[in-house]
Amino acid sequence: MKLQDLPQFSIKKVAAGAAYPALIGHFSGLDGVREGRSWLYSPGQSLFGELHDLDLSSGSAIFSAPYWDAQSAGQPGMSLPWLDGYWDPYQIEMIVDPNHVWRWVEFVPSDAQHFLLQGHRGWTKVGQKLPENAVPLEVVPSGWDHEHCDLCRAHIDADSGRGAYVDGDDRWMCETCYHRYAERHDLSFLVTA
Length: 193
Prior knowledge:
Layout: E1 8-16, E2 21-27, E3 36-40, E4 47-52, E5 60-64, E6 79-84, H1 89-96, E7 102-105, E8 110-117, E9 120-125, E10 135-144, E11 146-148, E12 155-157, E13 164-167, E14 172-174, H2 175-182, H3 189-192
Antiparallel strand pairs: 1-2, 1-6, 2-5, 3-4, 3-6, 4-5, 7-13, 8-9, 8-10, 11-12, 13-14
């Protein structure tokens, strides 16, 4: 599945909505389209919003976009791929970008920084920025003992005996997803999840 295979939302006009700008348009197809939180994808400047008033017979809908402005990607006359709100645009970009660099690694546990935030304990890798207002606690040697595949959420850990792929933004991908999706620039994970 390629970017052009996703449902395309053609923007007819932009109107003042009750709370946010309303992009009024229609879909090229409705496979997987549902009302609710979603994105109109554009490399580097996707629009977040709420899809509503979806007419299943005509494909017409309204996309309320709180961050839309006159310089946004979604302008009248444009068609943009629609993306369910479960996903984030960076996940599309890391798959479709032919220049996205992945390197194979064996996972090795690293130290974890524990912290307290509003009465709740949390932890992150040592060296990562702590959440705002977090109080640092102890450092646990080898306490960061796994990662998750960014697409399928599979555990990636030293005990699995398998390696994984990581990119320059420290996003992890299991070998299965790498070979099935990233290597082939295939977006079919969007419909199989």
